């Protein structure tokens, strides 16, 4: 059945909010289960890598500043929470809503435009990334690896990273034809970012070529910005612009992939 929306690019804040609220109500019905991954993952990582490896690794030097290994990886765990939750919500959940549940098509039979449904889905994916980032930050605060004021001042960066990886997830949902194909960007992009972008070790320890590649990946810029309480690299304004640019690019690509699936 073809969607009924006659003005696909029309936008109203209420329309976007109604889509976001619909997803929130679904999330709230199983909130305890949904909160477990962003809480349990950083605890496991911080205990296993932070406290387990700190006695072996000792202090780490980051941009000339010495800090413990657990303090070094804590901002990286916040970035990982943002990456995983926003990307997987945008990729898997949006793919299911788009292709199996036909939620997008059903929403477009209401007085909602494509832009409102897209923005509602995108902002919900970003919201899940923000929830994961904040919960991970709270775990780091309890472990005395981060402070309240640092987390509050980092919220804009967490939000920007969530928007970026949520848009990347939506682009993936629009790009693939089968749900198993989502594994391709996970293994080619997400896992390399997860391991190489300075989460568990400074990128300066990598070979020059690999360090250059890792530094270009968006997660590297996000982690660098989240480590601002320790030190900021001199190119941090470019990192911020890079995250903005990647977000705009991913939104544009996602729209180009999803729109034809609904209107052709």
TrEMBL record:
What gene, per UniProt, encodes this protein? nodJ
Q: Domain named ABC transmembrane type-2: which ranges?
A: 33-261
Q: What family does this chain come from, according to its entry?
A: Belongs to the ABC-2 integral membrane protein family.
GO CC terms on record? ATP-binding cassette (ABC) transporter complex
Superkingdom, taxonomy of origin: Bacteria
This protein's membrane topology, according to the annotation, is:
Multi-pass membrane protein
Q: What is this protein called?
A: Transport permease protein
Q: Molecular function (GO) terms listed?
A: ABC-type transporter activity
